[in-house]
Amino acid sequence: MRCVLFLDTKVSASVRVNALEQNQSMFLWLTVIYSATLFLSQGLTMNTATSDEGMWLFNDLPRERLLDAYGFDPSQEWIDHLSRSSVRFNSGGSASFISPTGLVLTNHHVGADTLAKLSTEEHNLLENGFLARTHADELKAPDLELNQLLSLEDVTDLVQKKIHASMTPTEALAARRETIAQIEKQSLDATGLRSNVITLYGGARYHLYRFRKYTDVRLVWAPESAIAFFGGDADNFEYPRFCLDACIFRVWESGKPAQVNDFLTWSSDDAADGELVFVSGNPGRTNRIYTAAALKQMRDVQMPYTINNLRRQEILLQQFSLRSVESARRARDDLFGVQNSRKARFGMLAGLQDPQLLKAKQESETDLLEKLAADEKYASLVPAWHSVAESAARRTLLQGKGVGLSSRLFGIAHWIVQMVQEDQKPSGSRLPEFADAGRESMLLQLYSEAPIHADLDEVLLGDSIAKMVELRGGDDPLCQNILGEMSPGERASTLITGTTLGDVAVRRKLVASGLDGINASKDPLIEFALLVDPEIRRFRTLFDELDEQDKQAYAHIAKGIFAIRGTSTYPDATFSLRLAYGTVASYEQDGKTIPAWTTFEGILEHERIHADQPHYTLPESWKKAFSNLHGSTPFNFVCTADIIGGNSGSPVVNRKGQLVGLIFDGNIQSLTSNVLYSSRQARAVAVASRGLLEALSVVYKADHIVQEMQVAAPEAAR
Amino acid sequence: MRCVLFLDTKVSASVRVNALEQNQSMFLWLTVIYSATLFLSQGLTMNTATSDEGMWLFNDLPRERLLDAYGFDPSQEWIDHLSRSSVRFNSGGSASFISPTGLVLTNHHVGADTLAKLSTEEHNLLENGFLARTHADELKAPDLELNQLLSLEDVTDLVQKKIHASMTPTEALAARRETIAQIEKQSLDATGLRSNVITLYGGARYHLYRFRKYTDVRLVWAPESAIAFFGGDADNFEYPRFCLDACIFRVWESGKPAQVNDFLTWSSDDAADGELVFVSGNPGRTNRIYTAAALKQMRDVQMPYTINNLRRQEILLQQFSLRSVESARRARDDLFGVQNSRKARFGMLAGLQDPQLLKAKQESETDLLEKLAADEKYASLVPAWHSVAESAARRTLLQGKGVGLSSRLFGIAHWIVQMVQEDQKPSGSRLPEFADAGRESMLLQLYSEAPIHADLDEVLLGDSIAKMVELRGGDDPLCQNILGEMSPGERASTLITGTTLGDVAVRRKLVASGLDGINASKDPLIEFALLVDPEIRRFRTLFDELDEQDKQAYAHIAKGIFAIRGTSTYPDATFSLRLAYGTVASYEQDGKTIPAWTTFEGILEHERIHADQPHYTLPESWKKAFSNLHGSTPFNFVCTADIIGGNSGSPVVNRKGQLVGLIFDGNIQSLTSNVLYSSRQARAVAVASRGLLEALSVVYKADHIVQEMQVAAPEAAR
Fold first, then answer.
1. Which residues of A touch B315 (CB under 8 A)?
2. Domain contains B520
């Protein structure tokens, strides 16, 4: 499921760059081996302590387990090199440097957002691919930011010392925000690096991450959708698979290809069956620490609500796509993202609805609580579970009642309004996404020249106003204020037709005009944003306070788990850099062994079986070149590494730290890994490095790229 | 919108034949000119008394209005002939007799259900069409029942005399059911005709309808989907249109083509622009009498819930279709129905969300209530509006909380269980669908040999169990009972894999085994039906009592409206025979005139504009024959007649009672006509008779069919 791997933050279609960081503070909790006591429904396999579970912090790797299970003890140099060769895409994926001159390897579906933005009606790069023959041909992405993690530092004490038990959630929230904003700003000023304080272990730990930021990112190569997504939505989540889900960018600095010191080289050999491999990337979000009450709220309320929404957007985008070929092109990337998310959430919900999963969780929790309650050192931690249950109940009451408007232009309008308002306050008192430290990254998005299709945006806005009317009821005063005498569709039409925010110069001018300028603006979308902003803020505060309540509770819960179950832990995913490990391994499904590998020659058979179905036709370039490919070259493979959405584009390396693959998906059995990992059937799916190199060389005649990379053995690239 | 025209009762995928009649008593209310005081949002056009509004009872036609507006005064013979030439499809559409030897003309999409049932993996009639060259070639539909209305009789006094003001809703419901069952049974015994008491004017009137029933119905001709649904979902709801949405069946009796005395002949001329035309058919359901409170409940609760469900089924069926070409074939008819319904409901909801529509309704209602309250003769009617509001509020609390399981095999299991249980009671005390009078029609469905695709059924059942878990919550005791240790998908798999109800002989045997047999059955679906039936019955009772409460309230409301606004009325649609009228008329859209007609030559241009888009490719038969067609022959046309879902397949006739067209759709502007009619932009869309005849003759070489029909002028059929 690319869906699980590709962070679906952009689904909101609002342009909040900082959504990732926001989500971190809002939803991401501590993970511990705790979840290893859960059973998998299908086989009752218990994860053992030696399983390949875990998305580990680079500064806290499970050295003992690696040594015990695999006899592997990575050097600090190995660790630092892999970490610095890893890259995060702000659009929601992972990647790696693969040449000294700044080439970056990621998935086609991670690059798709940029491919769509660089496409026009005449040149559909997302569909037809792209290859730059020279540096001058490389196409600059309008708003891509790549982050390379340079350092991390534990700032827990700094963050926590301002928080006192006597504070209300509101006070604690404000104090924490102010401290974090200060730390980030000081770090930025001191180092010039993008600086983010990341909440780990649900609030028990705070780390300051410093990133080198690349904002001049150019497209070098992308294959056709037909091979990147061979098998389409039918094969998505399935394995075996035949996808060249890869593309290559380059980071530039000062008008030249950037020089990078750390980059991955390619292994001359395929990874062998059973071989230990590592995945270095940015898993987005897991909920393995969630209490049973929180999981039930997710099962009964949050997940069904989210999936309904995704279905709604999917149908809407499909309908829009039917208007014309050009409409379909405009909606393609959004539609792909929505379908991907829908499928991933569907898998998560299916897991939560499996009675055995929750039963095991509940039993494990009951056991833990009994032990805590029986020990006077820890009995005070027990109320934390009640606190989570109470906040879950309050979340249920709020679900869907807020203001959720899917429109890029509205997102821009609202962003401008909030930014100008927040800028009246000192940095530490603002909503965190408007603090000084993140300003540059934010403006990159706000002033992006990426095309916004007004027709699509109008449809999205109209539908989301209609949805708001559905959820709040047509008699709701805010809805009535929004609509006046118009239907949702008519209102959206007047707003999108009337706004001039499509023009970046207008955005800059509005921001410069300050609060008076905004309040006096006659732009209908700015007026509209001013109308709905108080309600958006009201809900934001309600949720922020629930998050704060949970943060405090999960800090206690983590303490309780450490106390009873030990401290060998990794934190829940936070879209920050982690190392996962596992082995290349086949698995059993319905009594059949699914081999770990597919090869080029398997494509033709797969195409034949699915003749007459859409998305099973090789692009022309492959048909032409196929006879020159080696049929036995590995194309895709699977391993047991513990990954999730956000890991898309992560490099897979061997013990030598050499590239053997490129993560792009997980199989359908891995879908419950947001709450539970199992190595029995769940697999991460990767493009094999040899298949990728051979395709680059033979199909795309891109030997200049292959040569630029330091390929270990020339015969691999032929 | 075929969706509006094609009754979407089969969406439930349960096999309740009597759903139509059930719905009649449950949801269909009186319509009066009342709604003519509403405004249409887009143009504030007020419907005048001379507008073409109305779905009129054949025994209560608006003779004065026809005479005033069009100088037309139909003879009783004209009326009787048209009425007897009209046919109702139990699968949810309308039709007409078109030859003395039983040929029946309806829409391809009305026949689609049967086309799908007659198809196999090798012979896809739904996709590729069909033509019987001889009587022996005609294909018997497995479970189609056609009804020809022979008489109607006012039985209001009989039905009402057992109901007293002192009764509780439960008592009134039981008394009414018993009386109706008696009337129907007596009529059946006396005449041998299918006899249904239909609730009209929301409970103010009860009519006994007697139908001749045809259950040996054979397929004679169907075109390819590609031309029946040319333009696909993109063009659906739009006009102009180029669809040959027609197919032809034949009714048989005693192993021979049936002799019918009343059938329509074909006009030699096209209807002219502005010409008066009539539509005789079975509109399914309108809600024009609904109070503002009921409409708001529809707007905020019922309609959003229904549409979410349809989106859910649409995505599910799409996903299933991706499995293989054969899977797509199996899901095609369901998917079409779901998409159609989703679009129709979407239009209805959009209308309800238009503030002007509800404002006008509210103002009109306030005015009416003030006048009633001021008159002591009528003041006692006012509480009826409160009663509807109160029942609407209770409906909201129940929405989605019941047991809704979409599976044909489950539907059969549950049907058997309920039938055997109900058969322990006297006919008049049973749930109405199990009363004696309707038994034969019911058994036709229950014992249908139509194929049931277990793989699709399993997916539908699994998803609907999952939905139930979502809506009731995973901790709900019934859900926990259903699931045991299994996930929804696993439970569905064991149920569908384990049942033998796919075999009709098993069904017969189970029914014959009686209550003891059912209770002892080890068929997992029968056990499952027994498990969930008590909760289904609990909700059924709750809704039946709310319906009874509404029935009594709307009878008062109708009285109030008659008192203040006069009595020139037609009842809300009840899937019973009605006559609508109007003129062939172009309309304005976005400042452009949309002509009333399309022609054959327009197809090619339409195909050209939409090249590269799916569903805009003519089938081979048309490509081959196109040069022999007359480019100027009318293909589709629109008129102002007041139609809605269920009218699909209705004949359009001229003053002479001759066929000029075949209704198959309404344009997008007609979507709000469930609550409001306007002749400004709303149009019914029809296949022109000349286009149909020419296609039959030239494209399909079906001159034997054309000759069998009594075509008025030979040149029309060439």
1. 311, 314-315, 342
2. yes
Instruction: Give me the mean pLDDT over the B547-573 stretch.
Output: 88
One domain, residues B490 and B423 = yes
What is the per-residue pLDDT across B352-394, written as a single tens digit (0 to 9) for each? Answer: 999 988 998 999 999 999 999 999 999 999 999 999 999 999 9
**Chain A partners within 8 Å of B485 (Cβ):** 355-356
Residue A47 lies in a domain: no
Say whether residue A350 is in contact with chain B using an 8 A CB cutoff: yes
Which residues constitute the domain of residue B378?
292-394
The answer to whether the Cα torsion of B2, B8, B10, B16 is positive or negative is: negative
> Hey, are the CB atoms on B350 and A322 less than 8 Å from each other?
no
Taking an 8 Å cut-off on Cβ atoms, the answer to whether A312 and B314 are in contact is no
**Which residues, numbered 500 to 559 in chain B, qualify as contacts with chain A under a Cβ-Cβ cut-off of 8 Å?**
none
Please tell me whether residue B681 adopts helix, strand or coil conformation.
coil
Chain A residues touching residue B473 (CB < 8 angstroms): 296, 300
Q: What is the DSSP code (8-state) at residue B711? A: B
Nearest to B325 among A324, A486, A612 (CB): A612
Could B349 and A466 be called an inter-chain contact, meaning their C-beta atoms sit closer than 8 Å? Answer: yes
The Cα of B353 is separated from the nearest Cα of chain A by a number of Å equal to 6
Query: In this predicted model, what pLDDT tens digit does every residue of A570-621 receive, in sequence order?
Result: 999 999 999 999 999 999 988 899 999 999 999 998 998 888 788 899 999 9
Phi and psi at A162, nearest 5°, equal -85, -10
What's the pTM value of the predicted model, to 2 decimals?
Answer: 0.91
Q: Where are the alpha helices (DSSP H) in B214-280?
A: 225-228, 232-235
Task: Classify the C-alpha dihedral B228-B233-B237-B239 as positive or negative.
Answer: negative
Q: CA of B351: which chain A residue's CA is closest?
A: A487
Measured CA to CA, the distance from residue A703 to residue B693 in angstroms comes to: 63
A222: nearest Cα among A707, A699, A711: A699
Torsion angle, alpha carbons of B427, B430, B432, B433, to 10 = -90
Q: Does A474 touch chain B (CB under 8 A)?
A: yes
Using CA coordinates, name the residue in chain B closest to A463.
B350
Residues B385 and B448 in one domain: no
The DSSP letter of residue B436 is G
Distance from CA of A344 to the nearest CA of B (A): 14
Cβ-defined contact of B474 to A300 (cutoff 8 Å): yes
Which residues of A fall within a CB distance of 8 Å from B323?
234
Would an 8 Å CB–CB cutoff place B401 in contact with chain A? Answer: no
Looking at the predicted complex, does its ipTM rise above 0.95? no
Examine the domain organization and report whether B383 and B437 are in the same domain.
Answer: no
Instruction: List CB contacts (< 8 A) between B612 and chain A.
Output: 325
Residue A381 in any domain: the answer is: no
Three-class SS of B388-400: HHHHHHHHHHHCC
Partner residues linked to A96 by β-bridges: A86, A105
Lowest average pLDDT, out of A612-621, B72-81, B705-714, goes to: B705-714
State how far residue B485 is from chain A, nearest Cα, in angstroms: 6
Residues 6+ apart with CB under 8 A from A83: A58, A149, A280, A577
Nearest chain B residue (CA) to A343? B319
- Is residue B155, in this structure, part of any structural domain at all? no
Separation in Å, CA B542 to CA A642, B51, B176, B433, B546: 49, 39, 16, 17, 6
Three-state SS for A205-243 is EEEEEEEEEECEEEEEEECCHHHHCCCHHHHCCCCCCCC
Q: Any residues with CB less than 8 A from the CB of A372 and at least 6 apart, and which?
A: A378, A379, A381, A382, A560, A563, A564
Per the structure, the count of domains in chain A is 1
Indicate the length of chain B as a whole number.
718
Least Cα separation, residue A41 to chain B (angstroms): 8
Q: Within 10 Å of residue A619's Cβ, how many Cβ atoms?
A: 19
